[in-house]
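LOG
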Amino acid sequence: MNDSRTVVILGGGVGGVVTAMTLRKRLPSQHRVIIVDRESRHLFSPSLLWLMTGSRSESSITRPVEKLSRKGIEVIQEEIVEILPETKQVRLGSGKSLDADHLVVSLGAELDPDAVPGLAEVGHSFYTLSGATSLYAALTDFEGGRIIVLTAAPAYKCPAAPYEAAMLIKDFCGRRGVGAETKVDLYAAEPAPMGVTGPDVSAAVRQMVEAEEIGYHAEHQVTHVDTGTNTVFFENGASAEFDLLAFVPPHRPPDVVSKTDLVDENGWVTVDRHTMETGHPGVYAIGDVTRIPLKVGKPLPMAGVFAERQAKVVARNIATAITGEGTSTRFDGHGECFIETGSGKAGFGSGNFYAEPSPQINLHPPSRRWHIGKVLFEKNWLRRF
């Protein structure tokens, strides 16, 4: 009798990497742990904000996914062309197929800057390596004028990131000596900063932004950008001219996932909020590719901390199912994040997003302590490779 089982993990981001590493530690060596991703390098996305302002390089915040093979994890760098949840089979761009006993979908959300006409042509997306790099170059050459930071849709991953970006850009311009000649404005598609955290935290984040003399404009849904005049146009009839544009692009579900029966009407994967199980036995989904509704009428935010904690739950439960050892566990909705404000300081929020009737979040004011905490978190994460 062959006692070997195969776990296939789709995606080499936070959720995929944590799932693979946790499983490898918990499963005997005869069981296979396979991770599939089209990218050759893992990116620590929170550090893109530091890449944007020149305190990090691309090589310092990325690691080869292939390094996971040293830990007994099989790494396949290929495009995923089809997912068959009912049979737990995955078809790859090379024509090969993978058959899994347990399948974990951790493919995240895809960025879609072309959904807004003109946005990608003149703006810089600090959600990508290339965009953060080009934004740093533009900021380095900037001699004053108006900088717009823009969220192109109300829902996006890393909910604090655009607010951090605005404050870090303002700080960077000040350190370069062009702060007095620079006006930074943040135009948000959402009604308030990090709205799912509740009115108190949301108001505190807005206060952080406005304390840096950054203009905050809520409920401005962008329709298009005129590349000839460098003007942003919004659904409410407003418009804004800029000298430099930094943006969070619209997000969409990966096409390969949207073509399966795992998804809801909006294309995101439906899961059990505690076990991350889908409607197919042995098939799980974690992280940004899922949509978990909360009692407040908003979904659980897209954030790496949730992907990491969901990954640990899924990996532990799969290991228990395979070995019969240990006990099952549940994702409880707890999470936290740092909020960089510039000048070597950061705030820190944490709490229970599953609390009812609304999430219970505590926000610590900016200090050097929390900035150092984020630096240490980055170092510890990248050290895993």
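LOG (cont.) second protein
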Amino acid sequence: MDLKSIAELKEEWSVLVSKMTEQFDVEPDLQGIIFLIGVQELGQGKRKFSKDQKQDLMHIATCRLLSTYGYYALTGVDEEGWPHWERIQKLPVLTMKEQDLLLKRAVLDYFKEV
């Protein structure tokens, strides 16, 4: 990703965070936004989740986000309505900063779709 692309991503990210801050009265970080995507993808509405369920929601969101790039595929939904994903391609080795940039780009692409 070149500097111009990174600058554009940061600007788009700032706009998204501002919109979400207005909507939720708190400035979400990347992990918070991924959690919200997990809740959205689960489709069971707002409710209390256990610590394990919160981790599962973050996993669902990450798989959904990375499915756009061909890394995961939805295999189905269990009897409780939780989606299950299969890794179909290994992710490249990335630094933490590169992982953040990939996830932020995936989040921005997600919100363009929905």
